[in-house]
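We emphasize that the prediction below concerns an isolated chain of 383 residues; any contacts that depend on oligomerization or on bound cofactors are therefore not represented. The input was used exactly as deposited, without trimming of termini.
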Amino acid sequence: MKLRLGMIGGGQGAFIGAIHRVAASLDGLYELTAGAFSSDAEKSRATGVLLGLPTDRVYASYQDLIEQEKQRPEAERVQVISIVTPNHLHFQPAKLALENGFHVILDKPMTFSLAEAKELQQIAAASGKKLCLTHTYTGYPMVKEARQLIASGALGTIRKVYVEYPQGWLSSFEEGSDNKQAAWRTDPTRSGIAGAMGDIGTHAFNLLEYVSGLQVVKLCADINVVVAGRQLDDDGAVLLKLSNGASAVLTASQIAAGEENNVRVRAYGEKGGLEWQQVDANTLQVKWLDKPTEIWRAGTGYVSSYAQHNTRTPAGHPEGYLEAFANLYRNFALTLQAELAGEQASSEALDYPSLEEGVRGMAFIENVIASGKSDKKWTDFIV
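Result of the prediction step, given as a token string:
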């Protein structure tokens, strides 16, 4: 049975809302049932019309959506609410949804501040409802394979990790034009205290911890505002110490002219290393100390159950960003459906980002900006 989905944000002209709707629809596990797509009631109504929703399930505000859906019979009301708004509008809708008995899918970063993230974690625990955080890149099959390979010990103790996220779209003062995405992502009142480090640095941080299975314990950051007139960082590099004593390097830049979204992670252990990058997402390079490099491919019979579970097509048929995004939606749906059936979800289905990743992501933002302003070489990673 499909889960009934409500959406907050994602109206006409919004980039990420459409991505979420495609991801939710890909496996037929959700049915978009209701929405408050914009703070402008007319824009919300117009989006609902385009999506074919009945007029009485399109709301003028997220408060109306949550209150009125709660009043509907249990067999009709939405079960999951997807929140795809700018950062400053994450906490209150998520809080209200959880408190009123709805599961939540939330775009990253989880909240506007670490304090909000910790509070939301407590609210979710008290509510008994679940939350999925859309750190897209952990949805790729070969990213999951990389995590499983490291966890198996095949590479030995991890010694070094590199993760990078280069973009070039903010190489000029885009927020000075009519670029809606640039306007809110570079505005501290809507984005928070970080620019590039909040927008894409959190993805890199999440990927580092997810693949390595380790946690950051110390950091030393160089944070830059390169484009004149910009209010938030658009470039940065961070040295990191991990929980097993290994070191790591993280870079995130939105002024790397000519770059798109080639997220890349490399990890090296005693016996070998691995490399994955988004431009060739179906491939994982496995590099050995004493034998030739191997090319592992998604859709094959030799990869782990986690990679197989998150692959839809035979080997050689490319899957990309939309499918990775959809894997998060699918795993969350499978987990909720198992719960409704009184069953235990598989470990593969339970493998989606949630509250702990959200709190650590917000801690990364606050720690990295503080480190960038500090004259100390190393600072503790405080959650």
